[in-house]
Amino acid sequence: MRSLLPRFTPSSRRIEDAMERTLDGRYIVVGGRRWRAADPLLADETTAALLSALGRARAAVRNTGGDERERARDRVKLAKEGLGERGVPWWDLTLPERERRARLRLNELSTAEDADAELSDRGEDG
């Protein structure tokens, strides 16, 4: 099973912290548009793992086609749900529920990445 822990500590959380936010802290503002902020109370290690998986999935969306691209989009969705940027808003969940969702999405991402690697090894990319 591939480790989802990043090889480095991403600075993305610090970048997001420096961005303009709505008064309630739930959204970041980029170019005048609101985007749901990542859950600020997730453990740094969890956030780093989800951001790393998100980066790999986004790269796959850009660099693949067909079925492989659709699987990569599914992985983007899982990572963003784990971060709290999609799905049930993080502020509507208790901290244990948020942590559980993040762990579940990490497990799903690991399974999906392993399955994609196996398909790639067999030459069965769409």
Supply database-style keywords.
126 residues; mainly alpha; single chain; 2 strands; two-stranded antiparallel sheet; 6% strand; disordered N terminus; 58% helix
Give the number of helices: 4
Secondary-structure-derived class: mainly alpha
Largest beta sheet: what is the strand line-up?
1-2
Helix percent reads 55-70%
From the alpha carbons, calculate the radius of gyration and give it in angstroms: 15 Å
Low-pLDDT residue spans? 1-11
- Beta-strand fraction estimate: 5-15%
Q: Major β-sheet, in short?
A: 2 strands, antiparallel
Distance between the termini: 22 Å
Average pLDDT across residues?
87
- The secondary-structure element order is HEEHHH
Number of strands: 2
The shape, in one word, is: globular
Write the layout of secondary structure elements.
Layout: H1 12-18, E1 27-30, E2 33-36, H2 44-63, H3 66-83, H4 95-122
Antiparallel strand pairs: 1-2
Describe, in plain words, how this protein is organized in 3D.
A hairpin with a 2-residue loop joins strand 1 and strand 2. The relative contact order is 0.17. This protein is mainly α. Strands 1-2 form a two-stranded antiparallel sheet. The chain contains four helices and two strands; from the N terminus they run H-E-E-H-H-H. It has helices spanning 12-18, 44-63, 66-83, 95-122, and strands spanning 27-30, 33-36.
